Amino acid sequence: MPSARLPDRDALMRREASPRPMLPYARHVTDEILALDSGALMLCFRLDGASFETADIRDLNDWHGKLNGAWRNLASDRLAVWHHLVRRPEQVWPQGRFRSVFAGDLDAAYRARIDAGRLYVNDLFLTLVLRRRQAAAERAQAWIQRFNATPPPTEDADVRLLEEAGRDLQQHLARYGVSRLRLYERAGLAFSEPLEMLRLLIVGRPEPAPLTAGHLSEALYASRLIFGREALEIRSPDATRFAGVLGVKEYPAATRPGLWDGLLSAPFPFVAAQSFAFLSKVSAEAIMSRKQNQLLSARDRAASQVEGLDAALDDLVSNRFVMGEHQASVTVYGDTPARLAENLSRARAALAESGLVVAREDLGLEAAFWAQFPGNFRFRLRPAAITSRNFASLAPFHTHPAGRAQGNHWGPAVALLRTSAGSPFYFNFHVGDLGHTFICGPSGSGKTVVQNFMLAELEKLDVQQVVFDKDRGAEIFVRACGGAYLTLRPGEPTGFAPFKALAFTPANRAFLGALVRRLVAPPERALTPPEERAIDEALAALGPMPAAQRSVGALRSLLGQRDAGGIGARLDRWRRGEALGWALDGETDALALEPRFLGFDMTHILDTPDVRTPVM
C-alpha cells in the first residue's frame, strides 16, 4: 500500500502570495508620516465632517467654494489625495448605574428597542501622498528597486514638504474638525492609527494595529482575502464576510455639492474611496485642448461642449480651479452572498440618483479593491481628469451629527439616540462646558416626554437634578424616580429657609449676597456702594450665629432701622409674618438637598413676579 507524503511546508509557503505588492507601506518615518516602497510619503487625517441637512444652501455653496480654494492652494503634480468614507455598524452605549428601578427599567426597554435594529456610523478619512521626484535614470532604478526588499531612503526635504502641506490642509479644513492620525501608546505597546485606518479598509471594521519591527504590510494583512470573479471573501479569525466593488464609469454632466450624500444614510456597510492626483497646469491644458480638438475634428454637433471647454480652459489658465486624475469606487459588504447582492443593488440605486454611472467590477475586481489604498497608483482602473470643483462636489466631507460618546462635561454621553439616517447620536446637555438645551414644539408634540426621558437617562451619571415644573406635568415621573416633589402656592409657606440651610462658606455667602440684593433692589435704580457694603457687613455678622437663629428677620435687624426707605425697610416684607414672608423665611428648611432629584411645581408662582425670580 503506497504511503502519502505530506506536502513540503516550504513549498506551501512559497505558493502563498505576499501582501507587500498590494500594501506597499514600509515603515513609520515619524509618528505621523509613513514611507511607501516607492519612496513616496503619506500623511493621514480623520475628519468629523460637517452636518449638511440643516445647512443653508448658501452655506453649502460657500463650503464648496472654499474647498475648491483649498485644493487650488495645495495643488502640486507630486501630491495626490485619497478620500475615504467608511460606513460601519456601531452601538456604544453610555455606561452608568441607575439609582431608581424605574429609570433602570426604562433604559433596559429602550436599549432592547434600539438593539432590535442596527446603527451605522460614518468615518471620514483623508490621506495626502507625496510622490518622490525622479529623473529618468532614477525611474529606471526605481523599477529595479521593486524587486529589492529594501525601500529607497527617505529625503528630509520631502518630509518637511509633506508636513507643510499637512499644516496648510488642516487650516483650510478646520471647520470639518480635522486631526492627524499618529502613533499612540497603550499598556506599554506602540499602536498606529494610520495602520488602523488601512486595516479598516481591508476588513470594514475597526481593529487595533500594533506597530511591528518588519514591513508594515505583514501587520496589516491579518485576514485572508479570496478574490472571485465578482466578489471577494474576507476570512477573519472570528468571522467571514463578502464584498463586491462598484466602480464609477461615467460622471454627470454637471456636479453639485453632496453628490454622494445619499450613501450617508445607507442601511449597509461600505467603503467609498476616491483618489485625486493633481495634474500640472501644462498637462491639464493639454488634456482639455486634446478633447476640444477631438470634438472639432469629429464635427461633433455638441456645440455646447466645445463652448464649455473654452470656458473651462479660461478658468484653468486663470487659476479658478486645478485639475487632477480621479478614481472612485464603492466596496460594499455583506454577511452572506445573498445579503451582499441586496446591498450592492441598494448602493447602485443610491449612486444612480446622483447621476453617476457605475458598474460592478468583475475582471478588475482585485485591482479595484487595492486601488482604494493610498499610494496604489498602478491599480487605478479608470482614472478620469476632473476639476477641483468636481472633486469638492464628490468629496464635500458631509456627514450626520453624531455627538460625543465620551469626554463630555459629565463624562459619558447622557443618552444614545437613533437619527433618521440610522446613525447613533450621543446626546449631551452641554457643548463643552456650556450647559444649555432648548426643547421646542407645539402642544402635544412630546416635549415633556423627551425631557423626562433625558432626565431618567441622566440619573446614571450620578448628578443632582432639579426640575421646575408647570401644571404638575412631571410629578409622577419625579416620584417614580424616587425624587421629592413640592407644589408651591402663593401665601402658603414654601419651606425655604436659605439662611438656615446653607453653611456660610465663601461660595454660599456670595450666593446669599446676590439673593439679598435681588430682594432689596429698587426698580428704578441700582444699589449704591454704601448699600452694597451694608449687605456684606450684615451677612458677615449673621454667619457666626447658630443656624436656628439665622433668618430674614435677623438679617433685617442687622441692616439698621433709621432709613425708612433704605435696604432694611425694603427687606421688611420678606420677613416671616409679612406679605412675602411665606416665600423664603421658613421656621425650618424643608428643602433638604440630600435627595438627588427634586421637583417644584411653579404654576402659581409664575404669576407672582416679585417672588418668581428669588424662589427660582
Biggest sheet features? 13 strands, antiparallel
Q: Name the shape in a single word.
A: elongated
The Rg value, from CA coordinates, equals 34 Å
Structural class category: alpha+beta
Mean pLDDT comes to 86
Residue share in helix: 25-40%
In total, the number of domains comes to 2
DSSP, total strands: 24
Which consecutive residue ranges, at least 5 long each, have pLDDT under 50?
none
Our estimate of the beta-strand percent is: 15-25%
- DSSP helix count? 21
From the N-terminal CA to the C-terminal CA, the straight-line distance is 97 Å
Topology readout:
Layout: H1 9-15, E1 25-28, E2 33-36, E3 41-47, E4 50-51, H2 57-74, E5 79-89, H3 101-115, E6 120-130, H4 136-145, H5 156-172, E7 178-180, E8 183-186, E9 189-192, H6 193-203, H7 216-220, E10 224-227, E11 232-235, E12 240-250, E13 270-278, H8 281-297, H9 303-317, E14 323-334, H10 337-352, E15 357-360, H11 365-370, E16 384-387, H12 388-394, E17 398-399, E18 415-418, E19 424-427, E20 430-431, E21 434-435, H13 447-458, E22 465-469, H14 475-480, E23 484-487, H15 498-501, H16 506-520, H17 529-542, H18 552-558, H19 567-571, H20 581-584, E24 597-601, H21 609-615
Parallel strand pairs: 4-17, 22-24, 23-24
Antiparallel strand pairs: 1-2, 2-3, 3-6, 3-7, 5-6, 5-13, 8-9, 10-11, 11-12, 12-14, 12-15, 13-14, 14-16, 18-19, 20-21
